[in-house]
């Protein structure tokens, strides 16, 4: 595969200090709402963790930004859950292709309160609740068939029984320490603004592209 001649010129928007403002959350909200106009899943969030010094990256779905924290839901016993037991430092990334924008966030992950995980778990469709119970996420699975069988057995079991959120399924809240907003520009002279939290206040800087 040779992609050396594949290039797109970025020229749709600009990111200048006067419009960016001092509050990274306000800028994130603005960019998120603009991405929502064109992207079916603007809440696709790439989360990187580190386990035994090995970075690992995967997509999850951002479910809310609450009290400044970026929240997603998962299995606490998955690979990412194990990584987060060891190292709470994470980076997350949003890429909004139509707007030629990227947002990078670095921060600290912690589990959300059980009540919050309950509220979200019980708001999901019954099949998703059973799916979460059926999946020992990231463990080896002998066959697709075994998973479907397990799902069917659980479905039959929960026909007449109440479903309970498994204790190993819940949310993580990522508290940002820094944001970087990247806007593609012509001639590769892209705009990059970083926001870093210093003594509870955000300081903004421009970086070379
Ligand atoms: C569009 C998309 C959305 C996803 N959303 C989630 C999610 O919200 N939570 C989750 O645990 N995995 C989600 N996944 C699956 C993860 O990318 C990953 O395969 C899974 O969490 C296991 O990762 P791990 O082995 O690193 O723990 C999603 C994948 C895609 C492509």
What is shown here, in short?
This protein is α+β, with helices and mostly antiparallel strands and 209 residues long.
What would the keywords be for this entry?
single chain, 209 residues, alpha+beta, Pnp Oxidase, Chain A, 9-stranded antiparallel sheet, 6 helices, binds flavin mononucleotide
Write the layout of secondary structure elements.
Layout: H1 17-20, H2 24-36, E1 44-51, E2 54-61, E3 64-66, E4 69-75, H3 79-86, E5 89-96, E6 101-111, H4 114-123, H5 126-134, H6 144-157, E7 169-183, E8 191-198, E9 201-206
Antiparallel strand pairs: 1-2, 1-5, 3-4, 4-7, 5-6, 6-7, 7-8, 8-9
Helix pairs in contact: 5-6
Bound molecules: flavin mononucleotide (FMN).
Describe the overall structure:
The chain has 209 residues and is α+β, with helices and mostly antiparallel strands. It has a single domain, classed as Roll (Pnp Oxidase, Chain A). Helices cover 28% and strands 35% of the residues. The protein has six helices and nine strands; from the N terminus they run ααββββαββαααβββ. The protein has helices spanning 17-20, 24-36, 79-86, 114-123, 126-134, 144-157, and strands at residues 44-51, 54-61, 64-66, 69-75, 89-96, 101-111, 169-183, 191-198, 201-206. Strands 1, 2, 3, 4, 5, 6, 7, 8 and 9 form a nine-stranded antiparallel beta sheet that branches. A hairpin with a 2-residue loop joins β8 and β9 (201-206). α5 crosses α6 (144-157). The longest helix has 14 residues, at 144-157. The protein is globular. It starts with 16 loop residues before the first helix and ends with a strand. The model has no long low-confidence stretch (mean pLDDT 97). It binds flavin mononucleotide.
